[in-house]
């Protein structure tokens, strides 16, 4: 971190205005993002998150975020990385109103070896967390997290005290919010995040009904000469043989229980389908991932779905770490490292940007080589230049 750091403070008037915003959001008179913004700006945060869960069902009831992190982080967290988050696990075990500052529980040695920090949080830009369990009522739990970035410093004791004062009022607002009908609108949250994902992405069920398609994928499906189309709300391959292969690929995920022959087969969590593009040696690559509500915090709805990422090699766009991760089954840390090297960055510079050691990056590069079947950086760069055609 560079520059002089000053603890976050609020005047009484600023404090009262912030608290008034919490209650306005609870009453539906203000968006939660707008209500959380003064808190976010005062503490100089990377991300502010307020979320509620039904811990009995293991599903998110609502989630509001303020900050600049990529929307892909939400997808990766809900799909995979929430299961490895030591901060959330620690928070769930604490009492209502008990404050948690990550520096008091997870030292540098822990962070250096922990997969959640090294493979997910730090690559996306996060590092320090402070927050509390606002409400714990039966199976309902609400948590607020104040998150700072890699090149920031931990939260001070004074800042924790200010956060606790604000959290007591935020807890009252959350209880009020929970008791209103506003909670029924929670399903729109994931769609709003997915709308900002730059990679072509859609959600389909096992019968290929399209539940969501972002603008990037809509353009591919509507393109003249498309090999995949939206036909009356269903994802369909134009070629009949390809269409059969699409159905079989989805069935490999076994999204519905007790609905298939050969129930002894293990369900797949991901699969890939390559569809030949007309008048070309190239293929449209379809990367399919299972989104089971019980394993993804219910963030994508109550029904099991498949997330499909589409890669058309004819569209020579900038390398997208999210797509590279899908193509080679890389973690966020590994895909960002691979893309950084492909863009010409030195491994030492990438380590400095991320705030980790060069040794950590070299260990991750070794994993990238193994997963991509390459042995040198030059081979990796060449491979990414022709991302599976």
UniProtKB/TrEMBL annotation:
Record-linked PROSITE patterns: PAS
Pfam families in UniProt: PAS_8 (PF13188)
Domain PAS, first and last residues per copy: 186-257
InterPro entries: PAS (IPR000014), Sig_transdc_resp-reg_C-effctor (IPR016032), Tscrpt_reg_LuxR_C (IPR000792), WH-like_DNA-bd_sf (IPR036388)
GO function term, MF aspect, one: DNA binding
Gene3D superfamilies named among the record's database cross-references: Winged helix-like DNA-binding domain superfamily/Winged helix DNA-binding domain
Gene Ontology BP terms: regulation of DNA-templated transcription
Protein name listed in UniProt: Transcriptional regulator, LuxR family
